[in-house]
Design goal:
By secondary structure, the chain is of the alpha+beta class. The radius of gyration is 20 Å and the shape is globular. Its cofactor is Mg(2+); Mn(2+). It holds the Pfam family Dala_Dala_lig_N. This is D-alanine--D-alanine ligase.
Length: about 325
């Protein structure tokens, strides 16, 4: 880990908020990051991604920016492009890597090429259903991928617009719900098994997997409510996986981090089927930091201090 005394941290801006559907979650994440850094006597201030941001960055440049923006702009690389234009150091993946990771079908293709298993899928824009006829297209989807299916926006987070489809008759409604949050749908074969999230941090430039967090939602889906309302989901850390399976899950997260060209931190969502095979679902370049989020749970399970980890990630960007 980087020497905490070189360089010294002065002012840090924690970038949170924005105008995506995940604004409130981002603000909660931002407050927690700022509090964790302040506990180490770092001058950390939360700043929204609004019309005053550029003026602030140019007139009173911080030592670094820690983005915890969720959803579009925060994870699609745009805000990081702006930070690079201004010349302010920031924690996390660079813009090009964000764009690849943000687009779930593209990320699946990249990690598949790197040797990871990922559920068979198809990605369809809503225009296809209008032009070719929804019923005919959905019939082809079911015939090809089978049931059950998992439907989610091709871009987006927090499981907004996502649903499990077990009956063909429920697929049209799932598509309508998906298209409320994006113009393209990723439809993939739903793998039954144990859902886990594996967070990765870089130490001395090398990605290291933290203990896997097992996710046991009260309902069938780990949806937006289950993610952010305390008590709606059981989290088991470390995940209840055989040692060899846990090792493969950790390796999968590190492989995804490297293959996608990510930096500093990430969180990979996986499903482990009954045979113990690990399947890649998606990756997050700006993991949530709320009291119910998975990244802080993994940090705690590793016996690490969240503020210290965040501090070290910032220092690494300044060296």
């Amino acid at each position: 880990m980087a020497d905490l005394n070189v360089p010294e941290l002065g002012h840090v801006i924690v970038l949170a908020g924005g105008l995506s559907y995940e604004r409130e979650v981002s603000l909660r994440s931002g407050r927690r990051v700022a509090d964790a850094l302040r506990a180490l006597d770092v001058d950390a201030q939360v700043h929204d991604a609004d019309a005053t941001l550029l003026q602030t960055l140019q007139q009173a440049p911080p030592d670094a920016v820690f983005p915890v923006l969720h959803g579009s702009m925060g994870e699609d690389g745009a805000i990081r492009d702006v930070l690079e234009l201004v010349g302010v150091p920031y924690v996390g993946a660079r813009p090009d890597a964000c764009r690849v990771a943000w687009d779930k079908p593209t990320a699946k293709s990249v990690v598949r090429a790197a040797g990871l298993a990922t559920p068979p899928s198809v990605t369809l824009p809503k225009e296809v259903f209008h032009d070719l006829g929804a019923a005919a297209v959905l019939e082809c989807v079911v015939r090809r991928l089978g049931l059950p299916l998992f439907v989610k926006p091709a871009r987006g987070g927090s499981a907004l617009g996502a649903s499990v489809v077990r009956e063909a008759g429920d697929l049209p409604a799932a598509m309508v719900g998906c298209f409320a949050y994006g113009d393209a749908a990723l439809i993939e074969r739903h793998i039954e098994g144990t859902e886990v999230a594996v967070s990765v941090i870089e130490r001395d430039g090398e990605p290291v997997a933290l203990p896997a967090v097992e996710i046991v939602p009260a309902g069938e889906l780990y949806d937006y409510t289950a993610r952010y309302d305390a008590g709606d989901t059981e989290f088991v850390t470390p995940a209840r996986l055989p040692e060899e399976v846990a090792r493969r899950a950790a390796e999968a997260a590190v492989t995804a981090h490297r293959a996608l060209g990510l930096r500093d931190l990430s969180r990979t969502d996986l499903i482990v089927d009954e045979a113990g095979q690990v399947h890649f679902l998606e990756v997050n370049v700006a993991p949530g930091m709320t009291e119910t989020s998975l990244f802080p749970r993994a940090v705690a399970a590793a016996g690490l201090n969240l503020g210290r980890i965040l501090h070290d990630l910032i220092v690494a960007r300044l060296r």
